[in-house]
Amino acid sequence: MTAETSQTLDRGLRVLKLLADTDHGLTVTELSTKLGVNRTVVYRLLATLEQHALVRRDLGGRARVGLGVLRLGRQVHPLVREAALPALRSLAEDIGATAHLTLVDGTEALAVAVVEPTWTDYHVAYRAGFRHPLDRGAAGRAILAARQAPSADPGYTLTHGELEAGASGAAAPLVGVTGVEGSVGVVMLADSVPERVGPRVVEAAREVAEALR
Questions:
Q1: How many Å apart are CA 168 and CA 142, to the nearest integer?
Q2: Residue from 89, 94, 92, 126 nearest 111 by CA
Q3: CA–CA separation, 212 vs 206, rounded Å?
Q4: What is the pLDDT of residues 90-124, one digit of tens each?
């Protein structure tokens, strides 16, 4: 801690992070142990977070993340979209195909930013807000590949005709971005993806990841 930081706020944020990392919640004692502070401090932190609906306690007394975080989360997509747009524009113009940033939303892949090329005669219409299962389409499959090998270089994923007849896709996962699980990709009307597209998509995914760090 430095003179410019708040110890209480730091502890409160650490509580939220600890609760976000567990599915079954944590007791006051468990939080006290993990934070290295006494139970009285934890009670005060939880009471304050509960007032803002950021934490809730179940009947057994276990603390969990509250629904108030959803209100904060609604502002995440616009910020992520804004950070990703320069890399997506460059990718779309370079490849001549529709570029997109896709994030995980529950069990689905959600396109949160889409950029279409300006110079092509035709391209795939792909809209922000489009959803599809994670196990279909290059965007979702790239995310699943990164989950299966989190410490390895996941490279890129190619698909054809899984979401739209006649369309091929290439996508690479975002790597090293805390709290964001997603991928960057392109979709094009082609029987196969040209060889140079995969590495270019990986490059764009790295650019977006760097913008989000």
A1: 14
A2: 126
A3: 10
A4: 999 999 999 999 998 878 999 999 999 999 988 88
